[in-house]
Amino acid sequence: MAARKVSASVPPPTRIRTETHLGLVRRARRMNRTLTVAFPEVYCELDFSTPLELSVATILSAQCTDVRVNQVTPALFARYRSALDYAQADRTELEEMIRSTGFYRNKANSIIGLGQALVERFDGEVPGRLADLVTLPGFGRKTANVVLGNAFGVPGITVDTHFGRLVRRWRWTDETDPVKVEHAVGALFERKEWTDLSHRVIFHGRRVCHARKPACGVCILCKDCPSSGTGPMDKLEAAALVKGPETDHLLALAGIGD
């Protein structure tokens, strides 16, 4: 039987193993600039038109894909148009509408509680301050930063599964606690970059840098990535792993055309 390839056998470049904090800042910012080339247009992949809709969609996205959430929310948003609507929602009806997103009972509790809290404490409107948002049912810092960054234009770092996984893979931080990751990565960048940085990292995690088998051979971050070689380095093998609407663009950057 052939020996299984062990990704840990690929050592990081010496310059990264001995990196100073200044070197880390420069490398992280260089990687962000490279990601801007890979993903010149980034955006929240949850469909919404108001802060309330984004709040509900983000609650639904826990342990669920954005694609699935976007299939559920058109009917949901047509049925419930205000915080009061959610506060007075029939639980059975709401649960049935969101059932396919998983954990629907807990999510229904959070959404109804959110509506009630907004009506009781914020005149039915989603507040635009982190300190207020994290007091709402269904909200943690991740959800709060999603809403602040995408509905209010307030910079925030969204530490979801992809973001945490990639920044550790890139050795921007060794932290595992999401709040500590948020602060550690935020310190490497100008505040105005935080929201789009979050989108770029998440896009890259979904399209290229997969958890089990990243497409290293076509990743334009390879020269700055201490984990380069974790996935296949053969370009054609790696190219087959790339996903998403930017695939042609990403492969062109890697020198692979039609």
Automatic annotation (TrEMBL):
Pfam families: HhH-GPD. Residues 60-207 form the HhH-GPD domain. Keywords: 4Fe-4S, DNA damage, DNA repair, DNA-binding, Endonuclease, Glycosidase, Hydrolase, Iron, Iron-sulfur, Lyase, Metal-binding, Nuclease. [4Fe-4S] cluster binds at C209, C216, C219, C225. SMART domains: ENDO3c. GO terms for molecular function: 4 iron, 4 sulfur cluster binding; class I DNA-(apurinic or apyrimidinic site) endonuclease activity; DNA binding; DNA N-glycosylase activity; metal ion binding. It catalyses: 2'-deoxyribonucleotide-(2'-deoxyribose 5'-phosphate)-2'-deoxyribonucleotide-DNA = a 3'-end 2'-deoxyribonucleotide-(2,3-dehydro-2,3-deoxyribose 5'-phosphate)-DNA + a 5'-end 5'-phospho-2'-deoxyribonucleoside-DNA + H(+). Binds 1 [4Fe-4S] cluster. InterPro entries: DNA_glycosylase (IPR011257), Endouclease-III_FeS-bd_BS (IPR004035), HhH-GPD_domain (IPR003265), HhH_base_excis_C (IPR023170), Nth (IPR005759). It is an enzyme of class 4 (lyase). Its EC number is 4.2.99.18. Belongs to the Nth/MutY family. DNA repair enzyme that has both DNA N-glycosylase activity and AP-lyase activity. The DNA N-glycosylase activity releases various damaged pyrimidines from DNA by cleaving the N-glycosidic bond, leaving an AP (apurinic/apyrimidinic) site. The AP-lyase activity cleaves the phosphodiester bond 3' to the AP site by a beta-elimination, leaving a 3'-terminal unsaturated sugar and a product with a terminal 5'-phosphate. This is Endonuclease III.
